[in-house]
Amino acid sequence: xxxxxxxxxxxxxxxxxxxxxxxxxxxxxxxxxxxxxxxxxxxxxxxxxxxxxxxxxxxxxxxxxxxxxxxxxxxxxxxxxxxxxxxxxxxxxxxxxxxxxxxxxxxxxxxxxxxxxxxxxxxxxxxxxxxxxxxxxxxxxxxxxxxxxxxxxxxxxxxxxxxxxxxxxxxxxxxxxxxxxxxxxxxxxxxxxxxxxxxxxxxxxxxxxxxxxxxxxxxxxxxxxxxxxxxxxxxxxxxxxxxxxxxxxxxxxxxxxxxxxxxxxxxxxxxxxxxxxxxxxxxxxxxxxxxxxxxxxxxxxxxxxxxxxxxxxxxxxxxxxxxxxxxxxxxxxxxxxxxxxxxxxxxxxxxxxxxxxxxxxxxxxxxxxxxxxxxxxxxxxxxxxxxxxxxxxxxxxxxxxxxxxxxxxxxxxxxxxxxx
Length: 420
Description:
By secondary structure, the chain is α/β, with parallel strands linked by helices. Helix content is 58%, strand content 9%.
């Protein structure tokens, strides 16, 4: 017979094809263990097992698992259940408390994870209770950012290849905005993948290629510039070697076209989803934040207002707040290395863009530089201030106010609250 007063904790050792489950009570007694498959039948078996040991919608059993994504986690996050994503490094340290042999065991790891919640649940943060739309924005923003990184990786490969045999192409496109990822650069390089073929292009062919790429103006000056560059004297490879490089370039250009198209399509999807969210207006009110950067920030912080206890918790999560370490007479204050890297990446782009969009942000950055900060440190300090303001605005449902955000310290209590 199940006792209602008993507290139960669940640990799941996640694997690709199967998962080991362990249930313990508040005294550490193993109540049940099982191995479930990674499919709907396995998830049903897990939920039924927890139901047998007191799981209910009003009092769900908390679960510890070493991942924060996947179908199993999605199934567990339905309702009000708390799911704790335990870092595998932290779980490995806890393992030493239960075994000195340092041998890994899947059922044993499930038991370790359950005991982590039993003894130290207060020290770990459950997955945020984000809305369905916020979770969808997270998926799209991550995919779009990955597509941008992939696009840049392929573009770097194209640039490296062109340096081997085709310096005229680098001269023609490298100095322009977006460089080799520009539509006109990709169209013309596909039309003329070797210096020999580029030198034979006529003004009419160049003009037609520019039109196909979507260009709408300055055809005459651009075609003249390209023909002049392509017909200039450069060092050349042997003809057969040059043709071989041309075939390699065409293969890379197909990958680059696909990467550019994926990044553009995902950017459109991110924009549409982001503008549907209630927090989008507040995020877009901040200088330097457009739809894509705003979506990336929202993807990392979510819309669970209880996720961060205060602004400092958000700053620490982003890695913008300094960390202090003290031991005896030694005291060190430095930047954080353990942080949300995606949020920090978006934050640096945000603070850099804000230098042009916000006089207050620019003045704050210049003041930090005058005090001796390097560029990255000054940007991180500016981001730290922006995150404090963002936390306040989201909690109070107020848009960003330039005058309150970067006013002198002698402010009214209301303005001081917005500045935190």
